[in-house]
Design a protein that fits this description.
Elements (H helix, E strand, L loop, with lengths): L4 E6 L6 H11 L3 E3 L1 H9 L5 H24 L4 E6 L3 H13 L3 E6 L4 H13 L10 H10 L19
Parallel strand pairs: 1-3, 1-4, 2-3
Length: 163
């Protein structure tokens, strides 16, 4: 049996991460874990930015626990967390390897002005499990985002495949 794969979806809000994650969920198949889809039902749809920020870590922590069990059972998992920093991506890839899983980074890099056009459109008609994002937030997050390089985009085999 092939080892499972941990798929990391990388990108800023508005880049199309959840759309890609849903597509992969159907095609692979794999378990998709998207924090915003849990935050709304658990904490409410109309959260302030500080409430949303406070909710994200516990939800991602529980989703990671679900991912760990799923990978251990041989099921591939898609984490739709954004993964803005290389350090965070490497941490999750190391965790996947420790579980005997492969890992793969999927990145969606969109020019900042295009992101703002998409977010402005989304803000005008917020769907369930989506949250309002300001231009100031996008500018701040843009400065934090570390685009994956070619090395990061290579699928990493499971430890058992390296022997």
């Amino acid at each position: 049996m092939e080892p499972p794969t941990l798929h990391l979806i990388v990108g800023l809000p508005g880049a199309g991460k959840t759309t890609l994650a849903r597509q992969l969920e159907r095609e692979l198949p794999a378990l998709r874990l998207t924090p915003d889809e849990w935050i709304g039902p658990l904490y409410g749809e109309h959260l302030t930015q500080s409430q949303l920020d406070a909710a994200r870590d516990p939800v991602e922590s529980v989703q990671w626990a679900v991912a760990v069990r799923s990978l251990a059972l041989g099921m591939s998992v898609i984490l739709d967390f954004g993964f803005w920093s290389r350090e965070e991506r490497e941490s999750f890839r190391d965790r996947a390897a420790a579980l005997g899983a492969r890992s793969r980074v999927h990145t969606l890099v969109v020019p900042k002005e295009e992101l703002w056009v998409r977010l402005d459109r989304r803000n005008a008609n917020l769907q369930p499990h989506t949250f309002h994002i300001t231009r100031e937030q996008l500018n701040a997050w843009w400065a934090l985002f570390q685009q994956p390089d070619d090395d990061e985009l290579r699928e990493r085999p499971a430890p058992s495949e390296l022997k």
